[in-house]
Specification:
A 4-stranded parallel beta sheet has the order 3-2-1-4. The chain is of the alpha/beta class. Helices cover 37% and strands 20% of the residues. The protein starts with a strand and ends in an 11-residue tail after the last helix. It contains 4 helices and 4 strands.
């Protein structure tokens, strides 16, 4: 099973540690990757930590207020990487979790 965590992280703190802890605690057969909103370049702190792990990470090119473009980009990642489960963390990820109908990933 492949999971992707979507978050708007501006630093590396408690929630980010929890996401990494969950990813590391999953049994074999589970793969975890991360998608981060750019946050004006402030996502770099978490991205640097992710680069030091075995988990794939990508920074979305689109961010607020371009939610439709961000949704299409996220849908493409989900479809291309064959993601089974999207985990949304925070209000921005929750708002974007309603993927556009034309780009919904379904399997």
């Amino acid at each position: 099973m492949k999971l992707i965590h979507l978050t708007a992280s501006t630093f590396f703190g408690g929630p980010e540690r929890q996401m990494l802890g969950l990813a590391d605690a999953l049994p074999p057969g589970y793969a975890t990757q991360f998608a981060l909103f750019r946050e004006g370049g402030r996502a770099e702190a978490f991205l640097e930590r992710l680069r030091a792990t075995k988990h794939a990470a990508a920074v979305l090119e689109h961010d607020t207020p371009r939610f439709a473009a961000a949704g299409a980009e996220l849908s493409n990642v989900i479809r291309t990487d064959r993601v089974d489960l999207l985990c949304c963390h925070g209000y921005k990820a929750g708002l974007r979790s309603g993927l556009p109908r034309t780009g919904q990933a379904s399997r």
